[in-house]
Amino acid sequence: MRTVITRSATETQALGRRLGALLAPGDFVALLGDLGAGKTTFAQGVLQGLGVQRPGGSPTFNILVEYPGRLPVYHFDVYRLRSPAELLDIGYEDYFFGAGVALVEWADRVRDLWPPEHLAITLTLGEDNQRTIAFAPAGARWDRCLEDLLHAASGR
Total structural domains in the chain? Predict the structure, then answer.
């Protein structure tokens, strides 16, 4: 696991933007953390990095918002789900294992459904709007992607 500290929402979004620029078809990104930790801010940056022109907030009330960009983006917020089985009704397999990018907030609630290769990102809010962002890659592609991301982030 590798970590990055950001000191503002702007820095958190910029790190997300860098990740978005590196994402490829079929990627699954799990966003974890408490309420207010910065998951949506980070996700907005990822959407920008994928070329989404109208990145919004969290899709909490819709569970899923699809965005056109450099790749199709499937932005989930599964906070309101009562059980992972509810994702079966919307055909989650087409999104989690599809040709676009699946970006899932509160992903710990559906951990059993994650693809074997994924990037789990845990955001933790500290003092003075500081966030610790911990990256846990699963799979060789994610190891390479994370190295590229952290190399770019170190040149802030």
Answer: 1
